């Protein structure tokens, strides 16, 4: 992940990673996204929380944010995709980190394609 963070110019940022189960992930998904059930990965940016009303940072922070991964879902995803659990976790971490750095695949098809390309490029680094 060090290479990924360096590539995204986040080498001096702190990243918190939580591995949990589907039950706890469903609670987080409901609480923070108002969606039912577990998901594979959630990201909580500390950058956005520290921005002012006009979107400019209130101050510089070393905390990039939190990435939460459901191990239960990652295990199912790995089996379904025919890839190793480690590769699935790497992919989910990269996905979460990209969200923390401003990527959002839900805004538009173009943004989705841009994020997918970044995921593939970063996966190749590791």
Task: Please explain how this structure is put together.
With 126 residues, the protein is an alpha+beta fold. The chain has a single domain, classed as Metalloproteases ("zincins"), catalytic domain (Collagenase (Catalytic Domain)), CATH 3.40.390.30. Helices cover 52% and strands 16% of the residues. It has six helices and three strands. Strands 1-3-2 form a three-stranded mixed β-sheet, with helices on both faces. The termini are close together. The relative contact order is 0.18.
Structural class: alpha+beta
Termini distance?
7 Å
Number of domains: 1
Q: What is the second-level CATH architecture?
A: 3-Layer(aba) Sandwich
What is the β-strand count? 3
- What pattern of helices and strands is seen along the backbone? HEHEHEHHH
Strand line-up in the sheet with most strands: 1-3-2
CATH homologous superfamily grouping: Metalloproteases ("zincins"), catalytic domain
Uncertain residue segments:
none
Question: Any key phrases for this structure?
Answer:
globular, three-stranded mixed beta sheet, 3 strands, single chain, 6 helices, Collagenase (Catalytic Domain), about 130 residues, alpha+beta
Short description:
52% of the residues lie in helices and 16% in strands.
Topology summary:
Elements: H1 2-7, E1 14-20, H2 22-33, E2 41-45, H3 46-49, E3 63-70, H4 71-81, H5 85-100, H6 109-125
Parallel strand pairs: 1-3
Antiparallel strand pairs: 2-3
């Amino acid at each position: 992940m060090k290479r990924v963070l360096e590539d995204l110019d986040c080498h001096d940022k702190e990243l918190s990673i939580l591995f949990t189960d589907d039950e706890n992930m469903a609670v987080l998904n409901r609480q923070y996204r108002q969606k039912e059930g577990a998901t594979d990965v959630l990201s909580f940016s500390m950058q956005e929380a520290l921005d002012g009303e006009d979107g400019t940072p209130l101050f510089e922070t070393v905390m990039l944010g939190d990435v939460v991964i459901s191990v239960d879902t990652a295990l199912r995803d790995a089996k379904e995709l025919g890839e190793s659990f480690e590769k699935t976790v790497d992919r989910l971490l990269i996905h979460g980190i990209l969200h923390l750095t401003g990527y959002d695949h839900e805004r538009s098809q173009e943004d989705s394609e841009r994020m997918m390309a970044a995921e593939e490029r970063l996966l190749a680094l590791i």
